[in-house]
Amino acid sequence: MATPKPQELFASINHRPPKKDWMDVPVEIKPGRYCYAANPKSLEIVGFPHAREWNPLDDDWKLPENWKEIIIQGIKERLERFRSFKIFMDICVRCGACADKCHFFIGSGDPKNMPVLRAELLRSIYRGEFTRAGKILGRFAGARDLTPEVIKEWWYYFFQCTECRRCSVFCPYGIDTAEITIIGRELLNLLGLNIDWIATPVANCYRTGNHLGIQPHAFKDMIDFFCDDIEEITGIRPEPSFNKKGADILFITPSGDVFADPGTYTCMGYLMLFHYLKEEYGLEVTWSTYASEGGNFGFFTSHEMMKRLNAKMYMEAKRLGVKWILGGECGHMWRVIHQYMATMQHDTMGDLDFLEEPVSPITGTRFENARATKMVHIVEFTADLIKHGKLKLDKSRNDNLIMTFHDSCNPSRGMGLLEEPRYIIKNTCNHFYEMPENTIREQTFCCGGGAGLNAGENEELRMMGGLPRANAVKYVHEKYGVNMLGCICAIDRAVLPNLMDYWVPGVQVTGIHELVGNALLLPGEQERETNLRGEPLPGKEDM
Amino acid sequence: MKAIYSLFLVFALVLVALLGAGAGGMHYLFGVIIPYVAVVLFVAGFVMRVIRWGKSPVPFRIPTTCGQEFSLPWIKQNKIDNPSTTWGVILRMFFEIVLFRSLFRNTRVELHDGPKLAYASNKWLWLFALLFHYSFLTIFLRHMRLFTEPVPGFFQALESVDGMLQIGVPSLYLTDVVIVVAATYLFLRRVVIPQVRYVSLPADYFPLFLILGIVLSGIFMRYFVKTDIVSVKELTMGLVTFHPRIPEGVGTIFYIHVFLVSVLLIYFPFSKLMHMGGVFLSPTRNLANNNRMKIHVNPWNYPVKVHTYEAYEDEFREKMVEAGLPVEKPLEQQPENKE
Ligand code: HEM
Ligand code: SF4
Ligand code: SF4
């Protein structure tokens, strides 16, 4: 299935739902919109139940015999554990305010991608099995029977939600469909129904410490390789340390930054910044090959798997005896760190007394907002350095860039990290334009590939889901000539280039620390001819 | 279709009251027993539902942040949409509950050739939702004059403000008009906006029709088939003082009105109308975004299987040493308990 051309895809979007009631429209699993089933081996590595070969296009999904019992029991347990789930099951008034807020609905027109209906897929079963009104009145009260068809529908639509929480911003009760998707996926995992783009990274991460299964020596090699490039461009070679006991700070970033362009340039930016801080201020930052993944695809699987993968961060910080942890640019990684990590690890790590309250040794700034969990976002850290004039920057080296900034879902709606990245951009670039206000900050649109949906086989879905984001970029591209889209998320850096090529050719994607790396004047550096991408710097084009 | 079912259901309820209290003359049943039962079921149902919610813990602190977080001292925090203190949360909840803050953000997406997407402002739902709820609240409070003696000044004042236009006799209440208009709007948007129609259940039309039924029967009683208000007050005072009695001269229309209210009360705790309670408990709104400042404790947190550093080093020790990475246990004394 080739993905249709942009004009065709756009022309095919129809926001008018069909005549037939949604409960009577059977699910049709469309190629291009779903991701392949999980490889059973990956599920086995982490001990997940009912691992098997199955194909979403087959009639028979080889569900375990007692699948119904498992689901009902699973719902029951989660109702008892999550007040959010219980309340969100009970109070939706179907006002429809969330309906056209979801990028997947906007881009696909599939009515079951309206957040309210996505939630109703599960709510209808909840009503039928757990509420008196639903048991007695059945369909009149919005209840329906639990059948294998329902499971298929869940699987199809819960893996068409990127857990971006945009719907939650507009709901008068804050109903967060992401929360329902998270729980829905947990239920599906009880039946062995995951997608491979999540299950395999999870297995890799569990065993080798990162999603891509990069082993320790290879991890170090890759970073060394970046150091070669930096040396070539600047004449200075950073000397990062790995697994170093007694370092000041442990740095953890998503492995995507180590692996794929343009994240790699962001990674070079980190390396240059740390080198600079070491030379100028004696700060010792160490990388870990064990906790070499900031991202956490466990979050897209189940709360338990999230905890299992996340445990490495504090365990490694404790083993190495660092003062506090610094986290790289990543979206869902930061949702996990900010809203879940210290809570989850509290049973084994307690109040984290082995770490210190984070203070920037360079500016003396106390990171009040991270005083208990002791993990600081690198964008907060760098913004503080710039504010105190601790970095020598030459903005003009980024003069070829006409920037705009894409707020990633999780840092904006699960944290509120809005001004810091903008501050860094404005201090490293001369040209910056915002996209329209309905598409940024807390109202930002997802890249279309979050929550583990950045596979190749669902490209059509990603292009649909990414449409609102791309369209806003198109607006500033046409109006101001924007040619570079900044972001602070590794999944963005993987998803957006492809999305831009499709909808807005001519716009590239960058992490914020790539901008820092380009602007930063390293002590003793040679005159640079190119930027980190090896492209000639502004003014040096014809050399 | 779903709307019609619900409409018939409300008609059927009217008919029940008409036959029971009107033709059947079962005034005590409709004027005393059913209202008492309804109030008891409402209170018990409401409380049980809230307790049931409360029994489930909030394992994680998951506010949806809608503005700048509290961070560096020179960055301005949005203290209402991204509160980091209890006071901030109280303000956020205040705006949410009293002014429907989130609904105020509403937009409507439009597709244009280009391809181009546009987001049009769309505040009608917000406006009519507010009008609907506030007129409902005012009408509810105005009714307190039937349950108090002497009537407190507040309720009297409310009544005169509401009737200040002084149109007709008895003078027209503003809220009577507003609630009919607003509820009609809410109903019409449900059938006219294709997406909203698609997601609507019979259970979404039913409360609207029921409330409209209550309002219309009330209006009818006040302005058209006048009922003896003195007798009605005698009845209602009898109910609140637990000396229930049925005075002469109370018309059937009153029993219809009261029966519909009773049905609403009974229906309330089992339905989406519980959003009234739920909105206060929604974890995405009622928690401060102080996640990294204060560790939130999950009462059911349980130990999980993790991949320890030791197991990791055991697997990769040789490669690590070769690459010059530090290890805990040197190669030569590598133990045989390799995993
Ligand atoms: C704290 C109190 C309450 C708050 C904050 C609240 C808030 C809201 C909001 C924001 C909506 C969505 C907008 C809309 O569809 O109109 C709504 C809908 C609704 N509310 Fe309330 N509400 C409250 C109490 C009540 C009460 C006491 C009733 C009546 C018994 C009620 C009846 C309704 C109905 C029927 C709807 C659905 C309207 C429709 O079908 O479109 N609400 N409420
Ligand atoms: S905005 Fe909230 S209440 Fe309205 S339909 Fe969506 S989830 Fe339900
Ligand atoms: S969380 Fe995002 S992707 Fe999921 S339903 Fe809501 S708006 Fe859509």
List the keywords.
heterodimer; A: about 550 residues; mainly alpha; 2 domains; 5-stranded parallel β-sheet; 3-stranded parallel β-sheet; B: about 350 residues; Fumarate Reductase Cytochrome B subunit; two-stranded antiparallel ribbon; 2 strands; binds protoporphyrin IX containing FE; binds iron/sulfur cluster
Describe this structure in words.
- Chain A is mainly alpha-helical and 543 residues long.
- Chain A has 24 helices and eight strands.
- In chain A, helix 20 (419-428) runs parallel beside helix 24 (512-519).
- The mean pLDDT of chain A is 96.
- Chain B has two domains: 2-304, Transmembrane di-heme cytochromes, Chain C (Fumarate Reductase Cytochrome B subunit, Up-down Bundle), CATH 1.20.950.20; 308-339, no CATH class.
- Chain B is built from 13 helices and two strands.
- In chain B, helix 2 packs parallel to helix 11 (252-267).
- The longest helix of chain B is centred in the N-terminal third of the chain and has 29 residues, at 27-55.
- Chain B is elongated.
- Chain B starts with a helix and ends in a 17-residue tail after the last helix.
